[in-house]
């Protein structure tokens, strides 16, 4: 190379001049790198959130999986309870005591899996837990109180599995 060519490619100190297109290319590559890094961080965060949601959903599914089986058993448990009550008046004590033991055993098994009865009698009516079938005039209870439980309700953890079918108090009609 000639000295003049060498002189033009170097600045005054003898250092090479930065090429404008190389600087632009470097800036573009750095911006692209930053974009990719940002995308990587976002993707990583989204994946962690997905993992957390999946674990939460799997835990919830595991806890509430017994719900459909329990719901199917509740009618049989109700009939067992009715049979026990009916036999108390007519049959020898051993038979209804045996039915009571089976009934308690079934309820204990359900309770072990988080299924428990909803306490309704004497409580204020809650449409989330109770299904009002009858309004019953009652001067002894405040209006809107459950005064009779026609069918027991059940919940699994905090979810209602089957609402209680209840009679709710209303003010007696004035004569």
UniProtKB/TrEMBL annotation:
CDD domains reported in the protein's UniProt record: GrpE
Region spans: Disordered: 1-34
Record GO biological process: protein folding
The keyword Cytoplasm is annotated on this UniProt entry: yes
Keyword Chaperone annotated: yes
Annotated Gene Ontology cellular component terms: cytoplasm
Subcellular location: Cytoplasm
Molecular functions per Gene Ontology: adenyl-nucleotide exchange factor activity; protein homodimerization activity; protein-folding chaperone binding; unfolded protein binding
Record's keyword terms, sorted: Chaperone, Cytoplasm, Stress response
SUPFAM superfamilies tied to this protein: Coiled-coil domain of nucleotide exchange factor GrpE, Head domain of nucleotide exchange factor GrpE
Function recorded in the entry: Participates actively in the response to hyperosmotic and heat shock by preventing the aggregation of stress-denatured proteins, in association with DnaK and GrpE. It is the nucleotide exchange factor for DnaK and may function as a thermosensor. Unfolded proteins bind initially to DnaJ; upon interaction with the DnaJ-bound protein, DnaK hydrolyzes its bound ATP, resulting in the formation of a stable complex. GrpE releases ADP from DnaK; ATP binding to DnaK triggers the release of the substrate protein, thus completing the reaction cycle.
Subunit structure: Homodimer.
Record-stated family: Belongs to the GrpE family.
Protein name as it appears in the record: Protein GrpE
């Amino acid at each position: 190379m000639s000295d003049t060519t060498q002189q033009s490619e170097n600045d005054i100190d003898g250092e090479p001049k930065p090429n404008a297109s190389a600087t632009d290319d470097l800036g573009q590559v750095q911006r692209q790198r930053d974009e990719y890094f940002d995308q990587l961080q976002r993707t990583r965060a989204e994946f962690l959130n997905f993992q957390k949601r999946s674990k939460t959903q799997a835990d919830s599914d595991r806890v509430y999986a017994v719900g459909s089986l329990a719901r199917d058993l509740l009618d049989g448990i109700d009939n067992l309870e009715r049979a026990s009550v009916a036999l108390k008046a007519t049959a020898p004590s051993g038979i209804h005591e045996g039915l009571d033991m089976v009934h308690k055993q079934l309820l204990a098994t359900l309770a072990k899996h988080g299924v428990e009865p909803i306490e309704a009698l004497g409580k204020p009516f809650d449409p989330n837990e109770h299904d009002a079938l009858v309004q019953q005039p009652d001067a002894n209870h405040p209006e809107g109180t459950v005064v009779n439980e026609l069918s027991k309700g059940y919940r699994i953890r905090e979810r209602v599995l089957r609402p209680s079918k209840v009679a709710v108090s209303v003010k007696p009609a004035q004569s």
